[in-house]
What we know:
The protein is an alpha/beta fold and 623 residues long. The protein is built from 23 helices and eleven strands. The chain folds into three domains: 3-277, MetI-like fold (Orthogonal Bundle); 346-371 and 379-549, P-loop containing nucleotide triphosphate hydrolases (Rossmann fold, 3-Layer(aba) Sandwich), CATH 3.40.50; 562-623, no CATH class. The chain has helices at residues 3-11, 14-42, 68-104, 106-121, 124-135, 139-166, 169-176, 181-217, 229-237, 245-272, 282-305, 308-311, 359-367, 414-417, 424-435, 440-453, 459-462, 472-483, 502-519, 530-536, 554-558, 565-572, 618-622, and strands at 314-326, 332-344, 348-352, 375-377, 380-383, 386-387, 407-410, 490-494, 522-526, 539-544, 547-553. Mean pLDDT is 80; it is low at 274-280, 303-311 and 597-623.
Amino acid sequence: MTTSQRFLHTLRTPVGVAASIAFLALAFLAIFAPIIWGQQASVTNTSLISQPPSPEHVFGTDGSGRDILLRTLVATRLSVVMALTATAIGIVCGVVLGLLPLILGGTPGRWIVAGINIGVAFPGLLLAIAFSVILGQSAAAASLAIAIAMMPNYGRFVHNLAASVWGRDYVSAALVLGVPKRQIVFRHVLPNIRDPLLVNATLTAGGTLLAFAGLSFLGLGVQVPQFDWGRMLNEGISRIFVTPAAALVPGVAIILAGLTFVLLGEVLSRTLNTGARRTLSARVLRKLKRVRLRAAEDAKQDHATIDTGEASENVLSVRGLKVFAPGSDAELRPLVDGVSFDIGRGEIVGVVGESGSGKSLTLMSIAGLLEAPLHVTARSASFDGEDLVLSEDGHPRSLDHHFGTKLAMVFQDPMSSLNPALHVGTQVAESGQLHLYMTRAEAKATAVARLEDVRIPDAERRYSQYPHEYSGGMRQRAMIAAGLMGKPSLILADEPTTALDVTVQAGILKLLGQINEEDGTAIMFVSHDIAVVTSLCTRVLVMYRGRLVEDISADELRAGNAAHPYTQALMATVPTMSSPRGEAMASIPDDADFTGTSPIGVIEAVLPPTEAIRLIDFEGAAK
């Protein structure tokens, strides 16, 4: 769905309709109200001073006999225009201020960041009042003062967004290639932070409107004979007990105009948030509904045939797991297609396959960590004897209370999984307080014990250290310790050794093996390294293009008894001590197809001639 389509879809929602009506009304008044009622709103009539509401004057008249409603409508233009002017100046200057430290770098960049931080320390309205006094009492001076006061906060916002993009690999590559920093900022940084900037700009406009009205109310903004809502509020507050509408009507106008900008920000947020479920088209949602209904019908059939005695031996049982993603043509594309497997209690099961085969997707869907627009269905799924019920978005709701107690997960990159601003021990102990209802002291004592269990030296001292003070292997051990705060029946390990060197990897594998042996914890281990999987696991699941093509014991796999050609091809690509030197290593070409739909198969181009094998039909091998 394109951005324009998402925008039109959002406009049809209740929030979109309300935002559209409010914006059109505000725009109409800002453009046409001074033309239509400008002269009437300026006429004074001493015979109608402070009149109550009447058919001729809906909200009465002010202290000069002028119609309150007409003056409020006419004041829309000046109030909105000056607020938008201040917003535009403040945002442009804030963007430049936030990007300058990246362009200049070094000492100048650090000085600018320090200046931004000092500016943020002062309240924005206080800065606006101070600069308004310095610049003089006028509408233009008030707008400029508000823009200056806005710059530090917006500058820091932009700098934080830009700094997160500046560390990306494509920016580093551009720097290596000698691309000027200012060009990198406009080509790589700004396009990637555009969406949050636009959303924040609409919200800032609402706040600026309120700030400008505040300065006019204090007499530092619009001056007589001009008037805006703040000036009207200033004039009406002294007679609020005589003519309440003189102060209340412009006050309500300020609130409604500010709310309009908030609604516009919400519309932009929904439009630009491409990952949200609400951006899915009605066609896709109907397809997902049909998929859920079919999965529910299949689940009833599975429940009727499951052997309860056999199921109790499995800590995890999954039937017909599918993960869908909506394509550009509103068709549902299966990323994981009908995967079924069991994980026995105390068993270590490996999952192997090429990148993109669906290994991590399968693991994340089991843990309920996939977000929209990805959608998960399954004919049936059970964990530790409890059926997992999928919600509308495919998340297994009944799984939540198992996290930290019976289910643990170890991610690939421990540095990104640990919060750099918190002590490691605090993060390890957190699950004990959340899920096991421990006191802070009990959680800390347990966390220290778990850190010792995973062989982290001097655990008491290490408890209060930050992630950057840990090595890569120690961070991974800390993640495992967090999962062991309870007594997990199953650990989901998503390539936990990929980012580690060989010696640290061996330590983590040994630790997982000890946990399995001592505590009887089942482990589902995803990895690209077949040698590691066959040495650690008792059984191996082989995935290819989102399907489970073979379920084989590790002993059979090591013995070369794999039945499926893809498994055989994978094993043939693993180098051994007897691999001939000087010859090209075996590999699987990009155009190889093992599904039987395009019988390229495994030929001499895939494997060395002595190891060429015959293509076996996918459906037959899967059975």
